[in-house]
Prior knowledge:
This protein is an alpha+beta fold. It folds into 2 domains: 3-95, 2-Layer Sandwich (Alpha-Beta Plaits), CATH 3.30.70; 107-221, 3-Layer(aba) Sandwich (Glutaredoxin). It is built from 7 helices and 9 strands, in the order H-E-H-E-E-H-E-H-E-E-H-E-H-E-E-H. It has helices at residues 3-22, 41-52, 79-89, 107-110, 146-161, 178-187, 213-221, and strands at residues 28-36, 57-62, 68-74, 93-95, 115-118, 135-141, 165-171, 194-198, 204-209. The strands form 2 sheets. Strands 5-7-6-8-9 form a 5-stranded mixed β-sheet, covered by helices on one side. A 4-stranded antiparallel β-sheet has the order 2-3-1-4, sandwiched between helices. It is elongated and about 60 Å long.
Amino acid sequence: MNTRTIIMQSLMASVMLMIAITGYTQNRKTFAFTIEGMTCQGCVNTAAQTLKNVKGVDSVSIDLDSKRAIVIADSNVSQNDLKDALSAKTSFEALFAGETLLQPLSEEEKAGLDIQTLKGGSKINFNNHISKGKITVFDFYADWCGPCRLYSPKVERLLLENKSLALRKVDVVNWQSDLAKQLTKDYRIPALPFTLIFDNKGKLLGRVEGNSIGRVKEIISSQ
């Protein structure tokens, strides 16, 4: 029996014990799913509080190591209610049985697309990296950022749908880097992932905070 199975069984046992103690089983549903993007206990606390704030949710248990969550709620709560809450209030994502994470583009899929990666955390001159004649999306990330791993594949796949886009994936490295300081001063970056979108002439069209691909699409489609 692997560690994740043991953890999951422990979570379920705790839930069942709580149900037995409180005595409410009628008109209640139990949801078991994973929460992707969490990397620390603070992330767990944020996700748990977000789910507890969903109307009808009675209890939430989350394990960081396995990313497994158990939610007990009344019969009016749906999977989409839980997914939407996490999407609206955090940069995490709920995955239920049968669902998988979107994967980054393969090298074959990237062929012919205007995608560049800028490493090192150094200050950048945006004009030097904007693609002439295209809307250029700057996706700021860090290797340690869990939500960035959820968000970046979505941004990459925008280029499969729209060949008039260019993507610059920019590694912030850490909050002490020159790039992080530049973004904080010039664009008030609050957290990662963070996105800046420029038009084909280098004019800033908008900034997007967090794992919000829908907002990125809105800005692009407005042009």
